[in-house]
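Practice problem 4.
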């Protein structure tokens, strides 16, 4: 019998999480975070900050060397709970070509559900539903190599959706995509989140992070900052000191000495107001 931790509305919770690849150098140094059901959380950090290592702990691809991780209510360090963790916490990686295992789109989307032992009739329903959610209903019989990078990433997301997870963790899923592919994937993530799925997005793209409910900034294996996108990115110099950028429109307004904005629409309103009252 696998023990289930009390969740209190938290899909993911870490307690003094530590991890190192080489003895004596922490990649994660006593990290304490919680992610609530239904949240959209972005995790930022410079290269080597520990953000991808942290993400891999969420669905038990890595195990804590010290501390605890509770995912989907299960302690990831308990071997018997790993199946449950990976069913509840899906993971999507950077390169879609490394995630696709079948020669036909619908077969690839069905793969994980089949491994969970889902009955055939239900798999068919799940596959159709998942492809519909990501906007690929017309591509069920396509060979994945005929799809664009953004479409391949949507296939990967659909395969996770077919498992019916509580949460999807994505490790820089748009890094290898063109601007249209990035927009399509982000549009899909926002839709999934609106439908109640918790989204954890590891990204280096600040314009993507702005779309999250909450931002966690990693540095040297520790949490350097956390808060809403506005709370984080309005501190332009503090973000720069962590080796990161702010969204381009935020930086532009900062250099102009105007109030902090998070997107083009906000910038338009600020500039219009300034011009009308100048």
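Answer key:
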């Amino acid at each position: 019998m696998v023990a289930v931790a009390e969740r209190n509305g938290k899909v993911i919770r870490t307690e003094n999480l530590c991890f190192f690849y080489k003895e004596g150098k922490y990649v994660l140094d006593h990290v304490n975070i919680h992610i609530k059901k239904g949240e959209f959380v972005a995790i930022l950090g410079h290269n080597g900050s520990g953000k991808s290592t942290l993400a891999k702990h969420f669905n038990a691809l890595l195990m804590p060397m010290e501390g605890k991780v509770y995912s989907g209510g299960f302690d990831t360090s308990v071997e018997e709970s790993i199946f449950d963790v990976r069913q509840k916490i899906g993971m999507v990686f950077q390169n879609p070509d490394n995630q696709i295992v079948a020669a036909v789109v619908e077969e690839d989307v069905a793969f994980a559900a089949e491994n969970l032992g889902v009955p055939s009739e239900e798999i068919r329903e799940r596959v159709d539903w998942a492809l519909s959610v990501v906007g690929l209903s017309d591509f069920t019989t396509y060979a994945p190599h005929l799809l664009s990078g953004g479409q391949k990433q949507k296939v990967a997301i659909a395969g996770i959706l077919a498992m019916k997870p509580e949460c999807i963790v994505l490790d820089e899923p748009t890094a290898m995509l063109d601007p249209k592919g990035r927009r399509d994937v982000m549009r899909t993530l926002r839709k999934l989140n609106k439908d109640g799925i918790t989204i954890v997005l590891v990204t280096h793209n600040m314009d993507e992070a702005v779309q999250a409910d909450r931002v966690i900034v990693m540095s040297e294996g520790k949490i350097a900052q956390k808060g809403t996108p506005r709370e984080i990115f309005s501190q332009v110099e503090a973000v720069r000191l962590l080796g990161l950028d702010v969204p381009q429109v935020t930086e532009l307004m900062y250099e102009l000495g105007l109030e902090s904005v998070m997107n083009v629409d906000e910038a338009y309103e600020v500039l219009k107001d300034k011009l009308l009252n100048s």
